[in-house]
Amino acid sequence: MTEPVPAPGAAAAVRRALDGRHDLTAQPPPPPPPGLRAGERGLRLGTLAVVAMAAALVTGRPWVLALAVGPLVLLALALRSGPRPQAVTAEAEVGTRRCFEGERVSVRITVSYEGEAGPLDPGVTPGHGVRLDHLAAGPHHVDLVLTAQRWGRWTLATVDVDVYDRGGLTRHTVRVELGEIAVFPLPEHAGLTPIPVRLPQRLGEHTAEQRGEGVEVTGVHPYVRGERQRRIHWPATTRRGTLQVHRFAAERTADTVVLLDVLADVVDPVTGLSSLDETFRAAAGLVRAYLRTHDRVGVVSVGGATRWLRPGSGQGYFYRVVESVLEVRKDLAHRTEGLDLLPPPALPEGALVYVITPLTDQRIFDVLQQVRGRANPMVVVEVPAGEPLLEPGDTEGELALRLWRADRDAMRFTLVERGTAVVTHRPGETLDLALAPLLRGRIRGGNR
Fold first, then answer.
1. What pLDDT is recorded for position 4?
2. CA separation (Å) from 124 to 178, 253, 436?
3. In angstroms, rounded to a whole number, what is the distance separating the alpha carbons of residues 97 and 200?
4. Based on the domain organization, do 289 and 164 belong to the same domain?
5. The predicted structure's pLDDT at residue 33
6. Which among 160, 275, 331, 390 could disulfide-bond with 123, CB atoms 3.0 to 4.6 Å apart, if both were Cys?
7. Helix (H, G, I), strand (E, B), or coil: what is residue 261?
8. pLDDT for 202
9. Which range is least confidently modeled, 61-70, 194-203, 342-351, 353-362?
């Protein structure tokens, strides 16, 4: 994707194109009326002429009419500037429809018309989560550079292009909708991939507890006719007096499902971080880490309509997994109505389930109970949502905060007592710091 170099005065052009509509709650103006309209220059000159003639009639002084001569002459000269543009159309070419947070998207709008036209004057209303960084207008093209600020599925922008005649008296406005853009969250850095006790019978990169044809030695055993002689362990053979050969562990792949809690979006009152943002970034890091080890990864989001994608593998599957849950945030619309049952194909038997949640909505415990009822090994990754702010001297608030902390400690204790691993991922830290304690042993599943 090519990024144009901002020309001198580009910042002023951006401010003019935005016309004050640069906040997240800005909405595009009403659709422009079809056909020709008076331009700003024609309105100014006409207003001056009318005011001068009205002043002459009111005051009864003919010399005041001389003030209208200048605007009328300019209007007459502008009317003879050539044929006005007709049949105005515009087409937009967007560089990419999928990108990550912080990446730029280039857009070129091509304007076609019949006749002669003056300069193009674009007005831009960026979508939510999108920022306009550069704008350049030529005789037939308008070039934009926009930056995706937050993950989600956003309306890219709405552009109204005013096409003036050579004299600047009339204009024809054409609206261009740039469509939607899918912005992926930046994955958290993760390299550790904890595994459950039991792994599927598929070749992979994880060392299983069963015997197999892997590369990790787990012990020795007496020689059996037909085994390879190169596997003989001579020190053990000399010590025991009989042929002993190496015993190897099998190498298997893992099935992993990342379950996202989108029941609520809690904003930390101190840092301003969104729990939904941190949840999706942690999920993207987990998905990428397991796909790199050639495991199968699926995703489930609970909250509103349950969205899920059955486990798959391959680096290209990362984009399918992330894109399947982007509908959770579409133009600042966060859908959290109701709670559906988890579909059986979404949680394969024996799959390791990561539940990423801020633990702020009690309904998530119903989901955890469903996962536990299917005997899937489960890890709860808590995303802290911050603590409520208190005013100095608020004794009742301090007591409520202590109760709030005790309630959260009780929730974690209950999960641990039921055999569920609970780890905490704090914003700003790598995901490996949260997953490291899980490497002490293998994750066990529940009971049906």
1. 42
2. 11, 50, 48
3. 37
4. no
5. 72
6. 160
7. strand
8. 60
9. 194-203
Residues 165 and 309 in one domain: no
- pTM beyond 0.85: the answer is no
Q: Is residue 203 predicted with pLDDT exceeding 60?
A: no
Query: Domain check: are 338 and 411 in the same one?
Result: yes
Return the closest-CA partner of residue 278 out of 270, 269, 268.
Answer: 268
Q: Quick check: 24 pLDDT over 90?
A: no
Kindly provide the b/e burial profile for residues 99-118, where b requires at least 16 CB atoms within 10 angstroms of the residue's own CB: bebeebbbbebebebeeebb
pLDDT digits (tens, 9 = 90+) for 41-71: 666 767 777 777 777 777 777 777 677 767 6
Shared domain for 397 and 355, answered yes or no, is yes
Between CA 266 and CA 236 the distance in angstroms is 60
Within 8 A by CB and 6+ apart from 422, the residues are 379, 380, 382, 412, 415, 416
Contacts of 109 (CB under 8 A, 6+ apart): 90, 91, 92, 93, 122, 141, 142, 143, 144, 159, 161, 176
What number of other Cβ atoms are within 10 A of residue 264's Cβ? Answer: 17
The per-residue pLDDT for range 170-179, each reduced to its tens digit, is: 787 888 999 8
The Cα 368–Cα 372 span in angstroms is: 6
Stronger pLDDT, 387 or 92, i.e. the higher one:
92
What distance in Å separates the CA atoms of residue 120 and residue 29, rounded to the nearest whole number?
18
Complete DSSP assignment for 345-395: GGS-TT-EEEEEE-S--TTHHHHHHHHHHTT--EEEEE---------TT-H
Give the position of tokens 């200048």.
70
Q: Are residues 154 and 297 in the same domain?
A: no
Quote the pLDDT of residue 446. 58
Instruction: Give exposure, 309-318, as e/b (b: 16+ Cβ within 10 Å).
Output: bebebeeebb
Q: For residue 357, is it within any domain?
A: yes
- pLDDT band of 108, cuts 50, 70, 90: very high
Would you say 119 and 41 are in contact if contact means Cβ atoms under 8 Å apart?
Answer: no
Pairing state between β 152-155 and 421-424: unpaired
In terms of Cα–Cα distance, which of 303, 401, 320 is closest to 358? 303
Fill in the DSSP letter of residue 408. H
The two tokens of residue 19 are 């016309």
